[in-house]
Amino acid sequence: PAHQQILLVNTPRDTYISNPAASNAMDKLAHCSLYGTDNSRLALSHLYNIPIAYAAQINFNGFEHLIDALGGVTVYSDTAFTTTIGGYAIQAGENKLNGAKALAFARERSKLTAGDISRGSNQMQLLAALVTRASPRTIITNYLEILSSLEGMFATDMPLQTITTLVTTEADDLNNWEILTYSVTGTDGTDYNYSAKSYAYVLYPDANSVSHASALMQRMLEGNALSADDVTQ
User: Which residue among 60, 101, 127, 178 has its CA within the 20 to 30 Å range from the CA of 223?
Assistant: First the structure.
C-alpha cells in the first residue's frame, strides 16, 4: 500500500513440487489442493520460501456473478480464438466480457500457444481488470449486488477487521494501483505424481524463474517499490 503496487505471480497448475500432505513427496501443484487450501498455501510457501499470511478462494459461480455485479470487465487478448467452454469469440485486442465470457476466458488453455502459461497470464489480467473496474463509485452503487454475488461462494481466512481497514483506507485510491505481473516458467516433462499414483505430464519449475519470483515478493514484503524492469527477468 505504501507504493500503491500489487504484484501478481502465476504458478502454473502442473508445476512439479513437494506436497506437504504427502510427507513432501513430489506432486502437481493442482493436486496439493485436494488436501485443502492450507496445504496449497504451505506448498507455495515452501516453493518460494515466502510466508503467506492469508488465502482466498472463490468458486466458478462466485467469479461469474462478481464480474456481472461489477458490470463486466475489459481485457486484452494477443490473439483471436473461440473458447472451448461456451464457444465465445475472443477477438485480438480489447474485449468487454460479462461473467460467463470472463470465466471461459480465464479457463482457456487448449486454444492458446503457450498453454497453461498463457492461461495464467490471462487470469492475472482478469484480476487486474477487476481492480481497475472496482472503483469507489461502482462499489457504492452495486455493493448489495456484489455482496450477494459472493454469498456462499467465497472464503478467506483474512480477518473481517483487516478487510474492512484495507477497504476503507484504500477506497479512494483503487484506480491508482499499479499492477505488476510475473509468470514462473519451466520445462515440460512426465513424472510420477503422488496423488494420482501414476505418471503424468508435469512442469519442472525453472530454478532461476522461481528465485526471481521469490525475490520480487520479498522486496514487496519489505515495503520496497518495484519497477516494470525489475519484474522482467
Answer: 127
For the chain, what is the radius of gyration of the CA atoms?
18
Residues whose CB is less than 8 angstroms from the CB of residue 23 and which lie 6 or more positions away in sequence, other chains included: none
β-partners of residue 94 are 76
CB under 8 Å to 232, separation ≥6 — which residues?
none
Region 13-31: what's the mean pLDDT?
A: 97
Partners of 26 in beta bridges: 18
Torsional class of 159: left (φ above 0), alpha (ψ -120 to 50), beta (otherwise):
beta
**Distance separating alpha carbons of residues 225 and 233, to the nearest angstrom:** 16
Distance CA 90, CA 78 (A): 10
